């Protein structure tokens, strides 16, 4: 197993094109585009990208860059999972696609609000003993629970590849029949 290098060691080992390639790859997630933007030939961009991504020092540097981006932006796999979980495990008992008074909407928790895809508002005039009064109402639409659960399953590696069983069937045997005899 190869030794982990420090950031300083990696930066000394990388060429300028490799360094640019790494930074562009983390952003674009496309090796050929990253190679072109790093200044490699368009004719060989896919080959160069493949070769670069196979180099251990480039793989290590890309991981360091990813960690740096996560730290700078606060976007991590864990945080992504937390947000998806708010959607996947939201309760329809508290959040439903019907009109509710604005007061009820304001009483929702931040986690419940995070599961809302869109909001529609209207003002209704309601008559009562005190006369006619305007009531602001809100209709909410939730994000898809199925889509959120599916995304969580992908991120966690729960989706197993589909397995197919193949069986070798004996090839048909052909017999030549002479109709003239």
Protein described:
The chain has 181 residues and is of the alpha+beta class. It has two domains: 7-75, Arc Repressor Mutant, subunit A, CATH 1.10.10; 80-156, no CATH class. It is built from nine helices and three strands. It has helices spanning 7-13, 16-28, 31-37, 45-54, 56-73, 77-88, 102-106, 110-114, 145-156; strands at residues 99-101, 116-128, 131-142. Helix 2 (16-28) packs across helix 5 (56-73), helix 3 crosses helix 4 (45-54) and helix 6 packs antiparallel against helix 9. The longest helix has 18 residues, at 56-73.
Main beta sheet strand tally, sense and closure:
3 strands, antiparallel
Rg, Å, rounded: 29 Å
User: Any idea how many domains?
Assistant: 2
The structure class reads alpha+beta
Oligomer: single chain
Which stretches are low in confidence, meaning pLDDT under 50 for 5 or more residues running? Answer: none
- End-to-end C-alpha gap: 73 Å
State the share of residues found in helices, binned by percent. Answer: 40-55%
With helices defined by DSSP (H or I, 4 residues minimum), what is the helix count?
Answer: 9
DSSP strand count: 3
Shape: flat
User: How much strand content do the residues show?
Assistant: 15-25%
- Average pLDDT taken over every residue: 84
Order of helices and strands: HHHHHHEHHEEH
